[in-house]
Amino acid sequence: MMLLALLAGVFVWGYLCGLFPSGPWVARSSLGGRYLTEVGSGSTGATNVLRYAGWGRAFAVVALDVVKAVVAVLAARYVMDSSADLFALRFGDNVGFLAWGESFAAVGCLLGHCFPVWSRGLRGGKGVASMFGVVLVFSSNLFVASALLWVGVLGLWGFSSLASLAVCLFLVGGSLFLGGDVVVWGMFGVVGIVVWRHRENVARLWRGEEGRVFGGLWRRLRR
């Protein structure tokens, strides 16, 4: 029971971190009194901020969303590490023990970001930047590779959603090399939330109706 209470606590902590409204807070002065969920795609993420508030504010949203995920997971790691002695006789593997707390906090943060209780209809962001924050804590090498892939796909085709989905696919395979079943399932949970939030983008990509952030290099080369 004590372990369940501890995991529930770090999950709630992660969710509360995810609730921080980075997009609405950064973009509020650029929307003329409108709320971010009332314009564009209705998402509170950086891509929607980019359309209405410019690159500078979009980058600020990305940074804040990454930071809140990092804070959520690192704080959970600290709490679990501080409590490890209480469960030493039962578990004996502090690495796996820490991974449980980190994974619960990571999933909680993504749920808080994507489905915030303060938003009508639980409509938040798509979770991509916060997913990057989780990956940064789990593996800096995987973070760099994911960031390069995202930039590369975006540069070639110009679709932010396609770049994000490509990273999700990469992380499904890449997380298998992180070590530990708990971390793998934690990453699968995070990636699953992000993919679910992109389900409408997938449909638009399939129909050829998805909007580009910019033209894309591949489109220019085909001309």
Give the uncertain stretches in residue-range form. none
What's the end-to-end separation, in Å? 63 Å
* Class based on secondary structure composition and strand pairing: mainly alpha
Number of domains: 1
Could you give a short account of the major beta sheet? none
Mean pLDDT: 84
Rounded to an integer in angstroms, the radius of gyration calculated over CA atoms is 18 Å
Quick take:
The protein is built from eleven helices and no strands.
What report would you give on this structure?
The structure is a single chain. The chain has one domain (2-221). By secondary structure, it is mainly alpha-helical. It contains 11 helices and no strands. The mean pLDDT is 84. The protein has helices at residues 2-18, 22-27, 46-53, 55-83, 94-114, 128-138, 140-157, 160-174, 181-197, 199-207, 217-221.
Describe the SSE topology.
Layout: H1 2-18, H2 22-27, H3 46-53, H4 55-83, H5 94-114, H6 128-138, H7 140-157, H8 160-174, H9 181-197, H10 199-207, H11 217-221
Keywords:
mainly alpha; 70% helix; globular
